[in-house]
Amino acid sequence: SCSRRRFSSLAISQIDIDTYQRDGVVCLRSVFPESWVTSLGAAVDAILSDPTNRDKEEYTPPGAPGRFAGEMDCSRKYTAVENFVLESPAAEIAARVMGCP
User: Which residues contact residue 49 at a Cβ distance below 8 angstroms, ignoring those fewer than 6 apart?
Assistant: First the structure.
């Protein structure tokens, strides 16, 4: 299971912060522990494959490569997503990149 471990801010460099400040976006690879990636990935797979899910919107045209879909309020409807939002280092990572104390 995913544990609430403090995020190591060393995983985000000053270059990452500067890139975000300049461009408004930065690609951060390998900053989440694998347990969080696995847990959230399994939850997303389940959400997307649920044929009874009437809240999901598919945006990828039939026959087009890839898949783009959306759904609102996932953290309120799915425990695994809620756990990620509340227990993972996501907020701490975002705060570090945005320069928040």
Answer: none
Sign of CA dihedral 61, 73, 44, 41: positive
pTM of the predicted model, to two decimals? 0.75
Q: How far is CA 95 from CA 58, 60, 76, in A?
A: 31, 32, 22
| Location of structure tokens 């847990």 | 39
| Cβ atoms 41, 32 nearer than 8 A | no
Do residues 39 and 83 touch, judged by C-beta distance below 8 A?
yes
How does pLDDT run across 16-65, given as a tens digit for each residue? 999 999 999 999 998 888 999 999 999 999 999 999 999 999 999 999 99
* 3-state percent breakdown (helix, strand, coil) of the chain, nearest 5: 50, 5, 45
